[in-house]
Write a sequence for this structure.
């Protein structure tokens, strides 16, 4: 059920007190009267009513046993197996303390503190959890916590402690559409937030992080959660990560950024596992993900249907390091560079499929390797990508190595249907197939524009069945 905020002003504490005091101070101190919380840390006396959701939030409350499969994860590459056993390994260990009579008996995992389906109750619970150095909070199922007021640019108090928010079936935290813009939440320095089975939606801001902002030294982990339909005029429509962010079995979809990172913008450590980044839009680069001078690790995931007005419809690595494994990057669009843009830094792609991406008016339908970049592609497939200009499959400006990789069925509107190797660039192929690519003008397979191409045919590299020809200025290639 949807539950909107019903905010009641607290009673005056002394004659002449200002009843119109700011909501922000009241949230920090007085929300116990709304939510039934014993905010003893800020001077509010405990009452019997506080037991509703206000029992002591001890360190034991931080354990989380809720990590069940989510419907949206049934399409994972591992056939739907849920192998987060490592994350759960400590939860079921035997506690053989002196007080236990039965050896080997499992200790029950403490439950979280229930939070009623009321946005004010959630605000109060987070406020208390921050004050008491963390908590596990169990949110209501079939509930939308509808946020209506701005707390320092967010709908919820900034996270400054280890806090776990457990959702369930149809549990959503949403900004009300008719209120002033604000993002949903911020993980501040020292904060460590875990989201389980939650949807974060409706955030809107002029600064980074339409849905969630992770500040330096902050940590965000999402499990079986969805970040969707958030908007920023800056970077990171869904998530802006300047600290550490890890996504497990999660979806980042239909978010919008005015500049980079329609789905995710990251300057810190970003890890995406068995997740889906889909249908996001960026005004500049990185429709799905933009990693800017950070570290990006993506595995067993799908980056699909994202778009930008300029470059890198799917993923952009701008400086730093990126490793992408066993991931599909498909059906992304941009003016230039439809799939992946390595825009300086070091990028490694292993067992990756880059397919059906489109550079609408520019070059590099599938993969672009820009100057000051080293890229290695192994055991991968780059197929059916399209560029209006050069490099239907790949445009290489610097250093690119392809190992055991297929470049198949790509098209360019000018030169290099499969690959265009630019001036001063070095392209090395090992046991690689460049087959059935098409260029409108020349170099259906590989067009070398003054750089160096090493086919290494003794390793099994072949360049065949391309149109109108296989190669231009490539030693050892039968034109």
């Amino acid at each position: 059920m949807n539950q909107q905020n019903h905010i009641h002003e607290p009673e005056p504490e002394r004659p002449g007190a200002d009843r119109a005091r700011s909501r922000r101070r009241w949230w920090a101190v007085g929300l116990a009267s709304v939510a039934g919380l014993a905010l003893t840390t800020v001077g509010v006396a405990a009452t019997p009513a506080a037991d509703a959701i206000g029992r002591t939030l001890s360190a034991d409350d931080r354990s989380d046993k809720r990590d069940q499969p989510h419907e949206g994860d049934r399409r994972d590459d591992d056939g739907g197996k849920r192998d987060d056993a490592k994350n759960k390994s400590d939860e079921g260990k035997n506690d053989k303390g002196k007080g236990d009579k039965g050896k080997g008996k499992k200790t029950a995992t403490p439950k979280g503190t229930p939070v009623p389906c009321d946005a004010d109750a959630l605000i109060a619970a987070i406020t208390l959890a921050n004050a008491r150095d963390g908590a596990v909070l169990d949110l209501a199922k079939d509930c939308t916590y509808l946020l209506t007021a701005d707390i320092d640019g967010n709908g919820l108090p900034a996270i400054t402690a280890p806090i776990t928010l457990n959702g369930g079936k149809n549990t959503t935290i949403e900004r009300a559409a008719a209120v002033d813009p604000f993002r949903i939440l911020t993980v501040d320095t020292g904060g460590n937030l875990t989201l389980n089975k939650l949807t974060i939606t409706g955030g809107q801001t002029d600064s980074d992080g339409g849905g969630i902002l992770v500040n330096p030294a902050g940590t965000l982990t999402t499990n079986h959660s969805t970040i969707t339909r958030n908007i920023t005029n800056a970077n990171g429509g869904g998530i802006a990560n300047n600290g550490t962010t890890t996504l497990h079995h999660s979806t980042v979809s239909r978010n919008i950024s005015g500049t980079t990172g329609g789905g995710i913008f990251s300057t810190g450590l970003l890890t995406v596992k068995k997740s889906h980044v889909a249908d996001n839009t960026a005004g500049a680069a990185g429709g799905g993900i933009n990693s800017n001078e950070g570290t990006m690790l993506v595995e067993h995931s799908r980056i699909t249907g994202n778009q930008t007005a300029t470059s890198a419809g799917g993923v952009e690595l701008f400086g730093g390091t990126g490793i992408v494994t066993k991931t599909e990057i498909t059906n992304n669009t941009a003016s230039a560079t439809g799939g992946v843009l390595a825009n300086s830094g070091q990028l490694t792609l292993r067992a990756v499929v880059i397919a059906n991406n489109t550079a609408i008016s520019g070059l590099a339908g599938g993969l672009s390797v820009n100057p000051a970049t080293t890229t290695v592609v192994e055991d991968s497939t780059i197929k059916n990508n399209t560029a209006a200009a050069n490099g239907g499959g790949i445009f290489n400006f610097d250093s690119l190595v392809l190992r055991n990789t297929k470049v198949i069925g790509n098209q360019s509107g000018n030169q290099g249907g499969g690959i265009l190797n630019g001036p001063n660039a070095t392209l090395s192929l090992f046991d690689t197939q460049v087959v059935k690519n098409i260029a409108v003008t020349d170099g259906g397979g590989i067009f070398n524009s003054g750089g160096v191409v090493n086919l290494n045919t003794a390793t099994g590299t072949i360049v065949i069945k391309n149109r109108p020809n296989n190669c231009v200025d490539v030693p050892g290639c039968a034109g």
The chain is about 5% helix and 35% strand. The chain has a mean pLDDT of 84.
